[in-house]
Amino acid sequence: MTELPARTAAYNAFHEAGLNRYEANLLLNNHAWEAVAPVMQIVTDYVIESNDVGGIDCNDLADRLRTAGYPLVGDEDHDAPEDDDPAA
Questions:
Q1: How confident is the model at residue 84 (pLDDT cuts 50, 70, 90)?
Q2: 87 CB-contact burial (10 Å; exposed 0-12 / middle 13-18 / buried 19+)
Q3: Would you call 69 helix, strand, or coil by DSSP?
Q4: Residue pair 77/66 in contact by the 8 Å Cβ criterion
Q5: Percent of the chain with pLDDT over 70
Q6: In the predicted model, what is the mean pLDDT of residues 45-68?
Q7: How far apart are CA 42 and CA 45, in angstroms?
Q8: Which residues contact 48 (CB under 8 A, 6 or more apart)?
Q9: pTM over 0.90
Q10: Residue 68: its H or E element
Q11: Helices (H), the chain
Q12: What is the mean pLDDT of residues 29-55?
């Protein structure tokens, strides 16, 4: 299995700083978790609300992610509310 070039470069940088692969992997995994935690919180809140309250659909989740600065891959949703639209 090949590693991604960025991860390999990070391993090399950590190695030069005196860390072994285990320590480097631990730091990279912690960083990755910190990066996805806000998105997972948005998804968790959405799932809880959709189960407990109802009346929301996947577009609401996409809007919440987009509003928080995490647009979906290939997201070109033209019916999403515009920030500068006075009618919205």
A1: low
A2: exposed
A3: coil
A4: yes
A5: 82
A6: 91
A7: 5
A8: none
A9: no
A10: none
A11: 5-16, 21-52, 58-67
A12: 91
Q: Name residue, tokens 């290939």.
A: 74
C-alpha span between 56 and 48 (Å, rounded): 11
**Tokens encoding 65:** 């992610």
Instruction: Answer yes or no: is pLDDT of 52 > 60.
Output: yes
Which residue's structure tokens are 């809007």? 63
CB 43 within 8 A of CB 61: yes
Written as one letter, the residue type at 61 is L
User: Phi and psi at residue 83, in whole multiples of 5°?
Assistant: -65, -35
Tokens representing 81? Answer: 């509310």
Tokens standing for residue 50: 């959709």
